[in-house]
Amino acid sequence: MYWSMGGTCWCNDLWRASISAQYLTQNDLFLEIHHPLFDAILLKQGAQLIHFQPKGGEPFFWSAKRSTFQKGKAFRGGIPLCWPWFGKMGTPSHGFARIVEWEMAQYSENEEGVQLIFELHDDAFTRSLWPYAFRARLEMHLNRAVELCLHVNAEKASTAALHTYLTCQNIHDVTVMGLGSAYNDALQGGMACETKEPVLHVNHSIDRIYTMSEATTLLREKDRTLSITHKNHSDVVVWNPWREGESSFADMNENDYTQMLCIESARISKSLACEDRLHVKIASL
Q: Does residue 131 have a cis bond before it (omega within 30 degrees)?
């Protein structure tokens, strides 16, 4: 069925999907979904999924303890969308898609899950930052897993990342598999590097763009495994600021770095062309 943003919809008394007219701090709405399979919260700004938890399972995503919502400012947590550029290729850093309001064009649901479609079009504000016409669409499928697909139709090639903040109990117990051997190290000025280790143990600050990753990345800790399946990607980004880096972020508390790791499906070394897409699926194994 389809549902408009005008109110609350009840379906067969089995689940509730609602727009909550609350503010995270000051203004703008978030979308809260409660379904037999999961609970989720999304910000309309950036079409950003900031919480997802399968029923009976652990949350997938991390948010900085001091994250607050302010219109026009990035929220640190969940899956911010970096587009139409990644990193500091322009201003603001990581593009404008995560700091502007997207329109929810479609909502549908059934016993198997929920689908949402968000759209963003160029306007006077976006053209002041990136002077090109575009239409972007973000499709989101939620059940016991999370699937996001970014579709881009733009006059200009772009770069993108689904900047996923995954939660963990303790970063010291985390291992990551499926990244491949080749990466560019942003902490060494983008230097091209290669590792012979098939498993990544994160024990220091890391900011890498893996350029030959496998289709699926696995994050493992003591009693939990998350799979991150990438489609039509060229890169996988791994980032954790570690102790020395988190102190530079006003929205992170001491030791927040021990509870998160960013593993991002990305198109950086190969740009997104007109009518291109980037897809990720995250599931608990």
A: no
CA 20 from chain centre, in angstroms, equals: 21
Give SS3 for 273: coil
Report d(CA 28, CA 16) in Å as an integer. Answer: 21
Residues 146, 149, 150, 152, Cα dihedral to 10°: -170
The tokens describing 4, both together, are 């408009």
Torsion of CA 246, 48, 163, 139, to 10 degrees: 170
Alpha carbons 129 and 95: distance in angstroms, whole number: 9
Q: What's the CA gap between 17 and 3, in Å, rounded? A: 9
Computed over every residue of the chain, the mean pLDDT equals 88
Burial of 196 (0-12, 13-18, 19+ CB in 10 A): exposed
Query: Is the whole-model pTM more than 0.85?
Result: yes
pLDDT tens by residue, 33-87: 888 899 999 999 999 999 999 999 999 999 987 777 788 899 999 999 999 999 9
The answer to whether 200 and 175 have CB atoms below 8 angstroms apart is: yes
